[in-house]
Amino acid sequence: MSPLDDTPSPAIDLAFLQRYTLGDADLQKEILELFVAQLETSLGKLKSAETAQEWLRAAHTLKGSARTVGAGSLADSAQAAESISDPSDPDSRHKAFVVIEREAQAVAAFLSAHRP
C-alpha cells in the first residue's frame, strides 16, 4: 500500500526496474523472463522442501530474485518465510507458502498486463 492512501502498490515496481536496467527495455524483458522462469522453480522448491535447510534456501533465493525485479511484496513474503521461527514446522511453512503463492499470482497477473 502507498503510505498516503489505500492504493495497493503494483506487484512489480517498473520504475525501479527501469532504473536498475538503465532504461534498457530489452534487458528489462530478459530479466523479467528469467524471473518468471525462476519463480515457478522457486515455488516448486518451497512446496516440496523436505528439510528446513531446503525451505530456507528456496525462500532466500526467491527473496533475492524478487527484490532484483522490484517485486517488493513478494520479496517481503519470501523474507517472512525465511524468518519463520521453526522452518521445519509444516503448518508454519504452509501458511507462509499460501501468502507467497498469492503474491506470485499477483506478480504473474501484473506482468501479463504490463510487460515492458
Which helices and strands appear, and what pairs or packs with what?
Blueprint: H1 14-20, H2 25-48, H3 52-69, H4 72-82, H5 90-114
Helix pairs in contact: 2-3, 2-5, 3-4, 4-5
* Oligomer category: single chain
The number of E-state strands comes to 0
What portion of the residues fall into strands of 2 or more residues? under 5%
Q: What separation lies between the terminal Cα atoms? A: 22 Å
Shape: elongated
Number of helices: 5
Q: Give the biggest beta sheet.
A: none
Q: What sequence of helices (H) and strands (E) makes up the elements?
A: HHHHH
Low-confidence residue ranges: none
**Class computed from helices, strands and strand pairing:** mainly alpha
> Could you tell me the mean pLDDT?
90
Rg on CA atoms, Å: 14 Å
Overall description:
The structure is a single chain. This protein has 116 residues and is an all-alpha fold. It contains five helices and no strands. It is elongated, with a radius of gyration of 14 Å. The relative contact order is 0.17. The mean pLDDT is 90.
Give a summary of the structure in a few sentences.
It contains five helices and no strands. The chain has helices at residues 14-20, 25-48, 52-69, 72-82, 90-114.
